[in-house]
UniProtKB/TrEMBL annotation, chains A, B, C, D:
InterPro entries according to UniProt: dCTP_Pyrophosphatase, DCTPP
Organism of this sequence: Desulfuromonas soudanensis
Protein name: NTP pyrophosphatase
Entry's Gene Ontology molecular function annotations: nucleoside triphosphate diphosphatase activity
PANTHER family for this protein: DCTP PYROPHOSPHATASE 1 (PTHR46523)
GO biological process: nucleoside triphosphate catabolic process
Name of one Pfam family that matches: MazG-like
Length: 130, 130, 130, 130
């Protein structure tokens, strides 16, 4: 398989099967899964712990392989959490992206990493919404 | 859209477009993205901070909505990282799941949450691989 | 040494010496140290990943030793960050504790794990501050 | 108080008193405390999320105040965990620092951020321990 041929549902089903075959629903509760995602996220960060932001952009092949594994773990636990909460990941992701598009209109934020409140202030001060 | 009609590539492309329109590639470097995933993972955990594992299984609707947003953020940054590293998420996820299937054979682990080494010891002690 | 004979300054100085002898100030920047604390915090969480909250209260001796090491790492990086930012840890901790005492007055929160806003609403509704 | 006049025990006692007055021992279990430290560590990281490592070294005063608060929260939960596990923080910190001094001898690592294994290989290849 690969990304252009695989749906979110395909991956969610594989994960549900993996968990079910092992009778692991009892461990894959929301609290434990949230901890698991955070744990894997930290293992991912470890690869960049002492690098400058720039250096993190050019990584050797073997590091890339390990990094891919940590990212896979993050996605794997996220899939399990979506299953546990019966969430449609696509719908929640697209809804959040729509919210981000509103929060960070491209003409206002291009090239800058300001947080939402900065732009909210701009909106309030002159009354128009861009 | 929804999970059974959306491919990983669909979501990766939407994320790439969002980042590109804002000239945010400069901020969406691997180091920063790994921090971002960890930050969102912690915001997700906050919903379960003081709950028992059992209580985390029955959540009110408004909490479910917020939790969905945090999970969306985790997936959103994961998509951006996959783009930044030019990783096929499906391939990496399936490869890691195959590794987990080998590490945690269902007949050995059903119902138990032991780590890999426990089962490795079992393999070593009697010489056969199950 | 031990806790009743050791000041925060004693520990901060030992950490400063360790970092300086290795010419590691260049790596112990606030961004990297914040990542390091989060990484160690996740290694600590891993010990409790699949346990119920109750089970986490009774741990075997060897687990306790490993857990102590992760907690030590968290404190070690926190000391280095306090040095890097020239922060008096005692002052910041006591200031935050004073804020928490105000946010969570014991007569209101005893036995309950409500967040601040719940009590703020109580204050607003009857006008008095307890 | 301040760092040169305050012992670890002073802070642990204040924290124990705060928790006890609120009958919060039931929530301050090791699992929950480990999550809490990770949550606060992520709030700390958020201040540096999009900054370069260099930029994180020069922060405005109001940011410094918020950062101090997050660091205080990390230390506060660490104190509570030390109390819950009846750990002497000084002993565990000094033991881990001694281990780090052995792992990362200053003459070998000065100026470099290599991980332990690199130096272990050096030790193994020529048989002597430096």
């Amino acid at each position: 398989m690969s990304d252009d041929r695989t749906t979110l549902q395909d991956l969610k089903e594989k994960m549900a099967q993996f968990v079910h075959e092992r009778d692991w629903e009892q461990f894959h509760t929301p609290k434990n899964l949230s901890m698991s995602i955070a744990i894997e996220a930290a293992e991912l960060m470890e690869h960049f712990q002492w690098l400058t932001v720039e250096a993190s952009k050019t990584l050797p092949l073997d590091a890339l392989s390990d990094i891919g594994e940590e990212l896979a773990d993050i996605v794997i636990y996220s899939l399990s959490l979506a299953n546990a909460l019966q969430l449609d990941l696509t719908d929640t992701v697209l809804a959040k992206m729509a919210k981000n598009i509103r929060k960070y209109p491209s003409e206002k934020v291009r090239g800058k990493s300001h947080k939402y409140t900065h732009y909210l202030q701009d909106r309030e001060s002159d009354g128009t919404e861009r």
